[in-house]
Amino acid sequence: MNKSLWFLLSIVLAIPAKALDAIHTKSAIVIDGKANETVWAKAPWYKIDQHILGAVPTPDDFSGRFKMLWNDKQIYLLAEIVDDQLFDRHPDPLKNYWDDDCLEIFVDEDKSGGNHQFNFNAFAYHVALDNQVVDIGESNEFGTTNVVLLNEHVTSQWRRQTAFPHRIIWELSIRLYDDSFSLKNNAKNKPVNLSKNKQLGFMVAYCDNDGSDGRESFMGSTAITPKDGDKNLGYITSDVFDTLILK
């Protein structure tokens, strides 16, 4: 097959991104894992049910959904996660963080798309069970890259549900940074102000491990077209993200 035909076929077969809505809130949201603010009831649920990597879990092993609010300073995310075994083997948040249970939030502030694996064109926040927030940092002049903590970007808190011990409610607030963000010039890094009808690239995923040496399942909110048989593309390119609209 020639390259032109393959390019056209890839466009036809590509899975179109869906639109997600975040509802505006004037009320203060307390990040405490309780989600007892009445405004949460106005936001629609979205499922975390798309297979990305590993085994496809049974519903009692893992299932998840999420909803979103926003104000001019941040996006709020409420995730409801069913996980029959919470697992966090690695005490160092910068080592093998993808092999522990964690919630992943992918954000492309200006919906520009493109590669972000070793830059901050977009962010892939790995939020661990101890609420540490990790992403891959920038390449330096030697061509090496560091994994970095970005705890100032995301505030996170989760709680188990008494009536459903395998269900947790996870609340997060996410400050958005544009692609000028750089660890090389921290003094200039400021979160952007948000406004109605703003669109950004967005995806939510969950790494599930019940005690193995590595991640057992990786499920996301977005249907991703495989590249060379691989759907684990969110940490590389924001082209696979859905569109989040601030309503």
Shape: globular
Whole-angstrom Rg? 18 Å
Low-confidence stretches: 1-13
Report strand %: 35-45%
Q: Mind explaining what this structure looks like?
A:
The protein has 247 residues and is mostly beta strands. The protein has a single domain (17-246), classed as Immunoglobulin-like. It is 4% helix and 36% strand. It is built from one helix and 14 strands. It has one helix at residues 3-13, and strands at residues 19-24, 46-47, 50-54, 62-70, 75-83, 102-108, 123-128, 133-139, 145-149, 154-160, 167-174, 199-208, 217-220, 242-246. Strands 1, 2, 3, 4, 5, 6, 7, 8, 9, 10, 11, 12, 13 and 14 form a 14-stranded mixed beta sheet that branches. A hairpin with a 4-residue loop joins strand 7 and strand 8. The longest helix is centred in the N-terminal third of the chain and has 11 residues, at 3-13. The chain is globular and about 50 Å long. It starts with a helix and ends with a strand.
